[in-house]
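SAMPLE LOG
Freezer: B-3
Tube label: C17
Construct: single chain, 241 aa
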Amino acid sequence: MSRTGENQDLTGKISGNERKKLSEPPIDVLFNPSLILKRDAWDIDVASMLRMLLDILERIHYKDLRICGIAALSSSMIHRIKVESIFKLQSMSEKKSKPSSHPDEVPIENLSPITIPFRYESSYPVSLQELLSVLESMISSLTESGTRKPRISIEPVEDFSFEEYFIKIEEILAQFETMIRTRVFEQGNELFSNLIADMDALSSARCFLAMLYLALKGTIRIEQTSDSKDILLCQVRDGSP
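STRUCTURE (predicted):
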């Protein structure tokens, strides 16, 4: 039976309107596989065409499974063509990524290892007396060459008195202790931030050490302010802890 006669037999029990829809694009591709090869498989929306076919079959009372079989076969052919095109593109990209071999390149031959020429060395026995004489001549030559070289005169290093330039830390801190005692005893208490308001970083560090020394000696008492951002220096009176 020819393809035309088979299509007529399949659609013989379908109404003229529905038969016309099955033979019109785009759904006609499902019943004429030769049209698949004439079109780009990626332009064929199989899912939408199957939904159209399902709508047509739901409107008619006669359900012919042969129509569904041909549509399923055509759909599988379209999907197979799409998959084959993917693998074809993949193989082409792999061929492009491989480095092309140039026919004009000459292969490098296996290089032979470097051969070192034979060197003859005498292996006759040497007596101990000969070795001693050679060592003696070497020592004497080194001694003579050393005497001929002028000796380098090194001037003595002058004594350096560190006491001249060394200032004891106690003397520096004593000045800050006097300043702290004066400020605290005059006002009864003083904030550390006020003491170092006009000082640089080095003087501030020395003032902090002097404050700790006075606290250790029991001359002043240090407390933390309520906002924990400053230190309060208080005078220690007789009988106070």
